[in-house]
Specification:
The structure is a homodimer. Chain A has a single domain, classed as Winged helix-like DNA-binding domain superfamily/Winged helix DNA-binding domain (Arc Repressor Mutant, subunit A). Helices cover 44% and strands 12% of the residues of chain A. Chain A is built from 5 helices and 4 strands; from the N terminus they run βαβααββαα. Chain A has helices at residues 34-40, 48-52, 60-72, 94-112, 114-126, and strands spanning 27-29, 46-47, 76-80, 88-92. Chain A has a 3-stranded antiparallel β-sheet. Strand 1 of chain A pairs antiparallel with strand 1 of chain B, so a sheet runs across the interface. The structure holds a DNA duplex.
DNA sequence: GAGGCTGGTTTCCGATCGGATACCGCCCTA
DNA sequence: TAGGGCGGTATCCGATCGGAAACCAGCCTC
């Protein structure tokens, strides 16, 4: 009963470290955790506790909040297990899945230009920021 | 002396109405005005007052703030006229110009799925949000 | 029946966002 | 010399963001 529906590789608990990139990343989807949540769900549905691991440092409150917003906006669905009444699973809607395209494009752009982003930032620091 | 450098079509003063789309748009670049500023600059450099028009409702403070952040992050350069000492012009850096690609992709995705976004939102409202 | 895991909620709080308003020096023109 | 455009700055304020910590019911195991 620890597994979701199918055999699904567990997420890397160190997949995201929100401390590292955040302020320099020029793209945001929704709130702080939304993009990471979407990417965590891209291979299939996940449970609350499965999401908490990879989203390093997220609190229950923030995760709930972010998931509720994604649900409200039609990107994620929430489904409680009915048989056991223990556990909840979150998954992408088609709309949410569609979001992954431009999101990945934005992520890739950021990766490609990471050095330039750092350089620009440091250059600005050095001339008196 | 009202014109920037070359002959450049003036921006439509009604180009953006931040009241309309904002909360449903799942993508953000920087702060509230950043994406609009980048798109205003895509055809060439613009002066402060040229930006204020199309960015309906922006205050001097918010515009300055947003421009300073874009400058700090290396997406925009600020250049004061030296001959007349009157006027300042803002333009995209190559890095900022590169941002337009994924930004446009995100905008287009939003346009394409606009109806679905509205529907999802309303559906959620109707079942007790 | 004590403790642990699951999926949260509640309260509190500091930081940031961003609008409103007032004000500023500089320059040009009338 | 008065007024107006330009490119801001200073101050205040309410709203939102998001972390910390405490707490919760339901279920399972020991």
């Amino acid at each position: 009963m620890t597994k979701p529906l199918a055999e699904l590789a567990p997420l890397d608990p160190e997949m995201f470290d929100p401390v590292c990139p955040s302020p320099l990343v020029p793209f945001r989807v929704g709130d702080k955790w939304a993009a990471m949540i979407l990417r965590c769900l891209q291979d299939g549905s996940r449970r609350f506790s499965e999401l908490k691991g990879p989203l390093r440092g997220v609190t229950s409150k923030s995760l709930t909040q972010s998931l509720r917003r994604l649900e409200r906006d039609g990107f994620v669905t929430r489904k409680a297990y009915e048989d056991t009444k223990l556990g909840v699973e979150y998954s992408l809607t088609p709309l949410g899945r569609g979001l992954l395209g431009p999101l990945d494009a934005a992520c890739e752009w950021t990766r490609e230009h990471w050095d330039e982003l750092i350089d620009a930032h440091e250059a600005h620091m050095n001339k008196g920021g």
